[in-house]
């Protein structure tokens, strides 16, 4: 007896810039997605992208939104356009997966979520690394109490001294330049803090309070952008969760590269060396005074700390699932950008509740803004959004 193949979910890209290439490279790993076409307001960029990848180019945004085969609009525009494009797609009756941030204001993010809720449409936003094999394995280890009761976490999202890395030479697979103007104007917190916030919320539940200080330490990142508005290039924050769990989060484009996540428990430490790498090893290090444990700590302190900050020795926790993407051309990372789109499509096909994805997108936005909006002095903010639990991937 043969069974019919499950219906594919039609998706379309609005925005064909740098990140669109990364999304498209990961689509083959996602079963059940069908790219109907792409659109960009820059005709030259649209033509280049469509020809490079051999995909359909819509003549205008209206044609894309009017296409009945499009069920999900993947919003890959620049941050200043996110809200307007998402709003238009929802008005056209399309579910939306938006690149981060969902909006640059909390009121705007809430309004989009409410619009989607009233229309009965799906709405989700990047990042989706909380669905990674690494975070899944970390979550399973915590639930199995491998380190006892969790006490605190150290989360790093430091990307190195970006202004000194010749970013003007960076190009995507189809030749799009890295969007320096948008990255610096939005700030590293809005652009990247979510890569730690989403996993932390997956592990510990909603953030209840944030104490943070952000700053702009290097305003003259490039002569071509001198004098233009810029967001923070670093932020330090303390996130408080239920049961007294606290996380220290640092985010910058100045400090040496370190994207590790470490969870400290009563009986040990669970560590992920790089939350950008979806299959990053998860290691379990037991706390104790035995000779082997003391020797391991000496090696970590005197050797590893010099060459790989955040790296730890210890037992490797088996990852759950298998990563279906290789290193991406244009970034070099093993990041499955399409996984969040696939999760939204699965929810649409299965009839799963849409609320958890919307809630998480708003919550990540609120926590991110709390880490960023600190006018020259530390700020303490109570977080009001309360997302429902979202099962971890992959």
From TrEMBL:
InterPro entries hit by this protein: Gfo/Idh/MocA-like_OxRdtase_N, Gfo/Idh/MocA_oxidrdct_glycsds, GFO_IDH_MocA-like_dom, NAD(P)-bd_dom_sf
Domain GFO/IDH/MocA-like oxidoreductase stretches: 137-270
Ranges where the Gfo/Idh/MocA-like oxidoreductase N-terminal domain occurs: 11-121
Record GO terms (molecular function): nucleotide binding; oxidoreductase activity
Tagged with keyword Oxidoreductase: yes
Region (Disordered): 372-394
Pfam families: GFO_IDH_MocA (PF01408), GFO_IDH_MocA_C3 (PF22725)
Membrane-crossing segments per the record: none
Keywords annotated in UniProt: Oxidoreductase
Record protein name field: Putative dehydrogenase
Phylogenetic placement of the source organism: Bacteria, Pseudomonadati, Pseudomonadota, Alphaproteobacteria, Rhodospirillales
